[in-house]
Amino acid sequence: MKAVCFETKDWERSYLEKNLTGFALVFPEPGMTLAGVASEHSDAVCLSPFISPKLDAGGLELFPALKMIATRSTGYDHIDLKYCKEHGIIVSNVPVYGENTVAEHTFALILMLSRKVHQSYVQVQAGHVERAALTGFDLQSKTLGVIGAGHIGLHVIRIGRGFGMRVLACDTRRDTFLPDLMGFSYATLDQVLCESDIVSLHCGLRPETEHMLGREQFAMMKKGALVINTARGGLVDTDALVKALESGHLGGAGLDVVEGEELVQEERELLQEDGDVKKLRGAVRNRILFTLDNVVYTPHNAFNSQEALHRILDTTVANLESFRSGTALNRVA
User: In the annotation, is 261 catalytic?
Assistant: First the structure.
């Protein structure tokens, strides 16, 4: 049973080869296109992407023998679920692997902004420290708004309460027990935006959540408030974010994800004569965003701890083994 595993490091390859039985594993070289992989391995029964490649209908059609996709991520918006359902392709994800990992990274971004850590570093490197420009603010007694109170969001709430913050949570599902236990309150999206000093996103990207934070929502937020996004880039309208930051209405943004983040490493390729104008515009927009001194960007790295990476592989192995045995673990389609 052939399985193609994308975006793997050497140690991950060794781990999968050691722990997966009954599979002929293929590890494409970095930069190899999906079409290039299919030209050699169109008989693959399983695909295991991470956050790329994008497996849309056009790409999936290249693998006529495909029966299962085991994405090594929690999100699955990079996979055409409609196509998979229509063609009987099982899709499994890794629902739980880095709740505390991503939550800790969320607060790394918050503290970078609240205490101007990145600006302090730049000043020291430049050999000129202007302390007045490095004045930050305490987290204690500030209001933290958490949009999406699932596994990760609850860990963010726990850490926020540890800092002595007031926490508001917005979620389509409300637990009757947790608010009293953890010391937070549920609120509407508008309430979260209006009352929070820091708004942190922890929800999935779906048609109804795309650009959930845009011009109108930023205008509702407190002047000087921070926006943190470790979830999905498409949740935020980047054009509106840049304007809100440049105008001074927002105090800063801590971003682990952005729209078109796959273009960050491909900017030179976009300068080709036949380059995609829309993609080029997105790359330029992100470059402008990254140059703002009140923006901290990490390259989709919130998940990247040794412990979380091993949990991802353990679950992926279990998903693939269950498929081989005729069941479907952690199935999303």
Answer: yes
